[in-house]
Amino acid sequence: MKFARTALLISGLSGSLLAGISSAHAASTDPITPTASDFAAMAQCKTLQTKYPSLKGKDLVVGLGGYTKGFEAPSEKDPSIIEGLDPSLFERISSCLGAKHSYQSGSFNVLLTSISSGRADIGPMLYVTEERMKQIAFVASMQVQDGSVLAQGNPKKINSVDDLCGKTVAAAAGSYEANKLVPEQSAKCSAAGKPEVSMLMVQNTDNSIQAVKSGRADVYLTEAGSAIAIAKADKSLQSGFTVDLPIMVGFPIAKDNATLRAAVLDAMKVIQESGTQKKLLDYWGQGSAAERPVVARG
């Protein structure tokens, strides 16, 4: 998942955009415990079911605006099942609240309108931006992070963004890394009397990987989940440090749906307290370091 793409959103632009109602349905797709059934039986969730009686037994409609592997996408084993971080969390949220959920797919450009108008109740994790918060509210629990891809063994001893002074960074042309992160860090290096950061501009992930493997670049910076996946697929590479970006992601919910917003916030608190979200972030490839205390925004 390239950061150049996720500068717009985390869920919704990868794959073909679908029209109409999806035949995909909810089903358990991960081995992580506590399971959705476990949450349904928890005392904390029983309390929430009493606190929010209007949601008990309700079918929560989850609007989708496309698919992004790792976050929400049809299962390779059974395309009728949607799997990923978002479905794994939806399973547990709905079970904790005594509700059910189903998926409705459509064009991304009408996703927020569908939620604000009530045609869908909630959506997959999206970037929380000031512009979006004019239209919609969010329950956010995850920080967007950049990750690093290094040669195995980290021979240049690059352990943080501060170690980039005098190093060569591979970055995709037009990406956040190339336009903001690397130039800003290079300026800090220069101000501290250290060598500036050199940047090797590349066109795609494959070129970036080859640059690190050949030694033309010391590190490749990209979205954290992508960095983990790249290193996992190539034993000559390893993932390294992460950098928090000034963006959170969260579930979009209509501003006037105060009950659902409060209920999802409370359910996510239970899920986080159990350690489940961190386990799911590791399982689906985003990395547990991205978790942040859940908050309501907008």
UniProtKB/TrEMBL annotation:
Superkingdom field: Bacteria
Domain Solute-binding protein family 3/N-terminal: 59-288
Keyword Glycoprotein: no
Region forming the signal peptide: 1-26
InterPro entries noted in UniProt: Solute-binding_3/MltF_N
Keywords on record: Signal
Family: Belongs to the bacterial solute-binding protein 3 family.
Protein name: Amino acid ABC transporter substrate-binding protein, PAAT family
